[in-house]
Amino acid sequence: MTTVMNHKSPTASHRPIMERLNVVTAVVLGVAGAVISYYLAQKFLPQNTEGSVMKTRHDQVVLIGMIGWFIGFMTGIGALVGPFRWLMGKDLSHDENMYLAGKDAGIARYFRYTTDHKVVGIQYLVITMVIFGLGGILAMLIRTNLGNPEGGWLHPQAYNAVVGIHGIVMIVGTIIMITGPFGNFIMPIMIGARDMAFPRLNALSFWLIVAAIAPILSSFFLGGITTGWSAYNPLASQAPAGMDGYIMFICIFAISTMVAGANITTTVVRMRAKGMTWTRTPIFIYGTVASVALALPAFPVFFLSQIMSGMDRALGTTFYDTRGGGSGWLYENLFWLMGHPEVYVILIPAVAALMEMAPVFTRRPLFSFKIAVMGIAGICGLSILVWAHHMYMTGWAPLLNAPFMLTTELISIPTGMLFLVLVGTVWRGRLWMTVPTASIFALLLNFMIGGITGIYLSDVPADAALHGSMFVTAHFHYTLMGAGLTGAIAALIFWFPKMTGRMIDKQLSWISFWMVQIGFNVAFMGMFMVGLAGQPRRVEAYAELFTRGNQITTGAAFVIMAGMLVLLWAVIYSWRHGQKAPMNPWQSKTLEWSVPNPVPLENFETLPTVTSDPYGYGKAQS
Amino acid sequence: MSDLQTKKPQWWKSKDVKITAGLWVVFSALIAIIGGEVNARPMGEAASETMANTIHIMKLFTWVSAPVAGLVAAIAVKALMQKMHFGDNPPPEADHQISDSPKATAVWVIVSALLCLFALIFGMVILQKDNNTLLDVHATDIKVTGQQWAWNFDYSDNGNFQSEDLYLPVNKPVHFHVTSLDVVHSFWIVQMGIKVDANPGYLTETAVTPTKIGIYDLRCAELCGLLHAYMQKKVHVVSQQDYNNWVTSHGGTI
Does residue B97 lie in a domain region? Predict the structure, then answer.
């Protein structure tokens, strides 16, 4: 619980409301809000009559209950304190701001609406691991179920629900896995700032994600998300009330992403240290900004698409219902307008993080910084013009297939630039073999496979054979997990000393690295094979001929799981008992390593001035 | 690579470059051969020209991307072949400070753009071929209706009878008009390499000419609810004679 701070409390016995709020009050108020609004909705909403066309009352009640939870939770955590003060015509005092930043609050600040970017970073790291844990358990349920052709012990409806929740939970986890923990903890220090531009928005973006977890968890008990993560209509309007959990989850998460995006972008544009020109800004910063800036146009569309989906379910509108003049194609368009930029939201910061590490572990400058920036910018620009390649086979607009084929294949050019930067940097460097170094090579391999299989899929005739098959599933796991998650784990190991003050266990992280990488490649190669042979996605049973491929995948999936558990153990153990980290264990030249462990509140005593680019390695300089 | 030219004029004579070039040739060949086979083998024997084209184009894409993948692999392996440094403290810094090589990057970008253009043109050519089948006026028209979780076929050209089985005459173009009664399904004949979504309220089209007598798989490729996994059928491609017999036995006309 919160500590009493004498210098600011009016009387010792009477603490202001602001100081009484934490995650406990948030959950209490959230549950109260949910119960009250659920009760009121049950009581006052008109009953479904015999003659009513849409039996939507249940969805209305569920959605109102979830909105009640959301409002209660956000009030209880203290998100409304600042806006309330502004309404009163005042702002928070300096002491109150210091209290919000978690000054002298110890462990309690992690359970409060704390504005310090380092606290938010750690909070994000923990929630990302929780999300991956949940998604990973669901992945293992899917794989065990697919261990034999007849399907397994899961009921088809339960299987569909598991697939849907695995999908959306993992997508959200991968979206926040780098910009969340490292974009919040490391990025402001890296650019030489004391905090983010909008610290309270920073806390808001994190607690919104926590608030969003209740709807997605509740969907387990409301029939599940039986539509896969893409939630296509009209299937979604047919789905059980678990779908309302999905809609609520996405709406809250989209707000969180927009808030974080605006915050991070502003911070980088406005708050870089003196002398940090754009050419001296580390590439990881570019990756982070590109990622969140790309989310800025993408997520409002996602938000909107789900609002419309919710209206179709609860209010009887027909945005996506052909019978009422709508179209499922509208949903697909809106969804993929978000859905394709979103994969680059995940991928770009992962690649950028490894680009940041490459010079450190090869002890030479980053190769062709400008090409790296151009590659990132090129991907961002093109990625909003490629969405309809997910819709080649919908029959929506055959004439548009050719132009979308063009834009999609053009993306391989900026993507190739990222490869060039990475291979250019490892070329003739002195490799310091650590897990992040090995991750660079793992990323080159996995991303190459993911990229080339993407070229097949971008081609309309080949997509006619591959779309909707396990091949697609394997392809995007190669990009999001093989490339994205590999980069995120490397980032965790690289920045672990700064974030926790301790070194991560070397041996355990190596064991985990090899288990995950080998398990991953075996598992998803098996999946490519069954996809090529014609196994559709999202099926709980399959023809005999796919048995071997699926069993290979299932077996290797258990290796991945074991590897991930080893990593989890390494993180927990090292966080508590690991060897104390020096200030700059990797001898890196970026600013975040110039502050002591643990990083003090407001990071720098005097703000640094930057006089050279961050990649000045190599003999010629010293 | 050419970034060495800042060091010495004849960069290609350096040992590093020679080894990398050798690796490049080996890896490119390996990726082209193995990659092409790995793709083509599981896809099985094509039951239509569309599928044959698809297998062909996937092999072609593999060959086109093999030099790029091979180069990345060669440089990566060369880097791994160097003496590595383990331990808790950093190794001495590299003996050079090369941070850019405009020529190398220009070559890289131009080559990747050309390969991209090549892939695009081939894709367009094959796409055009597939589209031409759609325009064939002599094709047999079959209306396909998906519903949770079954397929129905209307043989409108053969006396408009309905069937739950799909029989197709060999070597005759077939034109499918696909729709759905409830949610989105996807009509996919695996071995023929054709697919199109079945949308409620809309007719979508695809066409194919089966080239081999046999039994093939029709699967639903879009998650459509509870029994999506079981929404499959066999496709029977038979000789014209057998097809005529089958049609008349179902009350249709030839």
Answer: no
Buried b (16+ CB within 10 A) or exposed e, A375-395: bbebbbebbbbbbbbbbbbbb
Q: Are residues B11 and B127 located together in one domain of the fold?
A: yes
- List chain A domain ranges: 22-45+55-86, 121-594
Interface touch A433/B85, C-beta < 8 Å: yes
Q: Please tell me whether the peptide bond between B149 and the residue prior to it is cis, using omega within 30 degrees of 0.
A: yes
Is B9 near chain A, with CB under 8 Å? no
Looking at the fold, whether B127 and B194 belong to one and the same domain comes out as no
Give domain status of residue B14, yes or no.
yes
CA distance A535 to chain B (A): 9
- B19/A contact by beta carbon, under 8 A: no
In angstroms, the Cα distances linking B176 to A250, A423, B197, B232 are 37, 48, 11, 17
CB of A148 less than 8 A from some CB of B: no
Give residue B29's domain range: 2-83+103-134
Give the pLDDT band (50/70/90) at residue A11.
Answer: very low
* Amino acid code (one letter) for A545: L
Record the pTM: 0.93
Is the pLDDT at B2 greater than 80? The verdict is: no
What tens digit of pLDDT does each residue of B187-204 get?
999 999 999 999 999 999
- Kindly state the average pLDDT of the residues A388-417: 90
Mark whether B116 and B186 lie in a shared domain: no
Q: Do B40 and B76 share a structural domain? A: yes
Supply the DSSP symbol for A479: I
Position B119 in a domain: yes
Nearest to B112 among A328, A412, A543 (CB): A412
Tell me which amino acid residue A323 is: R
d(CA B149, CA B164) in angstroms, rounded, equals 12
From A175, A179, A2, select the one nearest A77 (Cα to Cα). A2
| Residues near A37 by beta carbon (within 8 Å), at least 6 away in sequence | A64, A65, A67, A68, A69
Number of domains observed in the structure of chain B:
2
Least CB-CB distance to B196: which of A370, A393, A532?
A393
Same domain, residue pair B154 and B227: yes
A179: amino acid identity, one letter: T
3-state secondary structure A33-84: HHHHHHHHHHHHCCCCCCCCCCCCHHHHHHHHHHHHHHHHHHHHHCCCHHHH
- In angstroms, the Cα distances linking A479 to A195, A340, B63, B227 are 32, 13, 21, 29
Q: Name the superfamily (CATH) of residues A121-594.
A: Cytochrome c oxidase-like, subunit I domain (1.20.210.10)
Q: What percentage of chain B exceeds 70 in pLDDT? A: 96
Asked whether residue B25 falls in the same domain as residue B7, the answer is yes
Q: Are B128 and B197 contained in the same domain?
A: no
B199 domain residue, yes or no: yes
**Alpha-carbon separation of residue A379 from A180, A291, B76 (angstroms):** 21, 10, 23
Q: What is the C-alpha to C-alpha distance for residues A262 and A295, in angstroms, rounded to an integer?
A: 10
Q: Could you read off the pLDDT of A480-537 as tens digits, one per residue? A: 999 999 999 999 999 999 999 999 999 999 999 999 999 999 999 999 999 999 999 9
For the segment A432-438, the average pLDDT, to the nearest whole number, is 94
Best CA proximity match to A554, nearest among A41, A7, A23, A139: A139
Residues B115 and B154 in one domain: no
CATH assignment of the domain containing B245: 2.60.40.420
> Using the 8-state DSSP alphabet, how is residue B183 labeled?
S
